[in-house]
Task: inverse folding
């Protein structure tokens, strides 16, 4: 058997995600997408058969969301259809997202959204009608997740525990430099202001250089504040990154700023990035204002 035949014979995994409106189906699909699943929400039920039978599916697991708003939503017919579709080339599993009626009422009242089955009747009656409609699917589902007592982070963590295919997948870590005088700080998870260091702009021979040049780096290293600060910043970051990853964060941006974004922030960003590499991370380094023109007016009074 060739390697191609082996790949073709591998079953395609499809997860059907359904549940009560407002219970967290959209959050579940977002988490699965972050974990590398292909996600489709509110696929008309009649398309499920054609999709399961389609040749050349991606091989990545697919999560399909549907609920009482989905076209062709008849629970008993869905169960029968899935039973007929289950064959050697498609592995279909099911998850039901549930929540108590009282908590769903609270969520709808808080967001002021309309419940699809509550048109012309009290919200609680619409929720109860939906619960009766979905009862066959809840009883049939292989996994039931009750979000009544979950906050969004707890729901995300539960789903990662259930469906993560590669829990050790590294985050995307970006380390950047920027100048406060050249616009607002970038949106970042951690921002460090390095303007307490002696400014190379006011040193003859360093003004036109940048933090990528050795002479500038040597000057910054000679500032006692540099070693004191970075010896605390680097361990803080290496401690936080695994914690961010444990919470399902896919991207972390760490930004270092100085006045013009050409000297202190650039050198510090490079220094911290190197420390992160030695700690086993693979950061991407970006310098927002490295090519900007320097001037005394931008740098302000000498400090």
Result:
């Amino acid at each position: 058997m060739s390697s191609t035949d082996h790949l073709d014979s591998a079953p395609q995994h499809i997860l059907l995600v359904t549940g009560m409106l407002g219970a967290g189906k959209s959050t579940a699909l977002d988490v699965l997408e972050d974990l590398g699943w292909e996600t489709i929400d509110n696929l008309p039920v009649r398309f499920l058969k054609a999709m399961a039978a389609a040749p050349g599916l991606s091989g990545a697991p697919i999560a399909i969301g549907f609920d009482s708003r989905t076209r062709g939503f008849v629970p008993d017919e869905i169960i029968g259809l899935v039973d007929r579709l289950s064959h050697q080339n498609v592995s279909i599993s099911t998850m039901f997202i549930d929540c108590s009626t009282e908590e769903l009422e609270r969520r709808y009242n808080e967001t002021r959204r309309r419940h699809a089955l509550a048109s012309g009747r009290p919200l609680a009656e619409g929720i109860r009608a939906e619960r009766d409609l979905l009862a066959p699917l809840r009883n049939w589902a292989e996994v039931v997740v009750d979000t009544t007592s979950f906050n969004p982070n707890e729901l995300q963590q539960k789903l990662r525990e259930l469906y993560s295919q590669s829990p050790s997948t590294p985050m995307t870590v970006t380390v950047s430099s920027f100048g406060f005088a050249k616009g607002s700080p970038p949106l970042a998870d951690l921002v460090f202001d390095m303007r307490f260091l002696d400014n190379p702009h006011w040193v003859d021979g360093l003004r036109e250089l940048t933090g990528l040049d050795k002479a500038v780096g040597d000057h910054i290293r000679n500032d006692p504040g540099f070693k004191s600060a970075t010896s605390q910043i680097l361990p803080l970051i290496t401690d936080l990154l695994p914690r961010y990853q444990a919470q399902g964060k896919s991207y972390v941006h760490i930004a270092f700023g100085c006045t013009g974004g050409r000297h202190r922030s650039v050198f510090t960003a490079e220094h911290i990035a190197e420390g992160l590499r030695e700690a086993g991370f693979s950061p991407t380094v970006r310098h927002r204002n490295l090519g900007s023109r320097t001037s005394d007016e931008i740098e302000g009074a000498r400090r």
